[in-house]
Design a protein that fits this description.
globular; 106 residues; mainly alpha; 6 helices; 68% helix
Length: 106
């Protein structure tokens, strides 16, 4: 798997486990976005990438919060000031190589 964006459901379950606090935060996000498997998986993938870039093994509430914030911005009207956030999100989604993928190739 070259990057987090390529993860399927099985890989998301394996590489994106959440603690109880993380599960509660994700439930809140789902109430905001509606019952969407796409949003659920997307938040977990982006949170995994943020945790990877932070150098942490576990996805924390702070990673989920940042992922949710980035995705909220990407679905809202896009003023020029938020272009940086969109570029960061695109980087996180498509370009960041996960530590998990690196370990699998060793």
């Amino acid at each position: 798997m070259p990057h987090n964006a390529a993860m399927g459901v099985r890989e998301i379950r394996q590489h994106c486990p959440l603690d109880d606090a993380g599960e509660r935060l994700l439930e809140q996000a789902m109430r905001h976005y509606g019952p969407s498997a796409w949003a659920h998986d997307r938040i977990r993938k982006v949170a995994r990438t943020i945790a990877d870039l932070a150098g942490t093994e576990a996805i924390g509430v702070e990673h989920l919060s940042e992922a949710r914030q980035l995705l909220s911005r990407s679905t809202a009207p896009k003023p020029l000031a938020s272009m940086r956030s969109i570029l960061v999100k695109q980087l996180l989604d498509g370009l960041a190589v996960t530590r998990h993928a690196q370990r699998q190739h060793q």
